[in-house]
From TrEMBL:
It comes from the Bacteria. It comes from Moritella marina ATCC 15381. This is DUF1272 domain-containing protein.
Length: 82
């Protein structure tokens, strides 16, 4: 089951479990749409995998399967992939 991490690892923007702006890789590294598109070019800076839109977990399911509250943030933010 996906962790549904609560923030962008680059800019620390809040990303709710219902956010359409959350993108993840296969390791669930999590980024906002702005960082994904404009900084990372849809490539995870941690594993070099592709970043895709994270699915939304319905509210009724969140009751028994809550999203993670653990915030992960890259200490120096993200740099532009070239």
């Amino acid at each position: 089951m996906l962790e549904l991490r609560p923030n962008c690892e680059c800019c620390d923007k809040d990303l709710s479990p219902q956010s359409n702006e959350a993108f993840i890789c296969t390791f669930e590294c999590t980024f906002c749409s702005e960082c994904t598109e404009n900084v990372l070019n849809f490539v995870c800076p941690n594993c070099s995998g592709n970043l895709v839109q994270r699915p939304i977990r319905p509210n009724a399911v969140l009751i028994n399967n809550p999203a993670s509250t653990v915030r992960i943030l890259k200490e120096l933010g993200c740099v532009t992939n070239t």
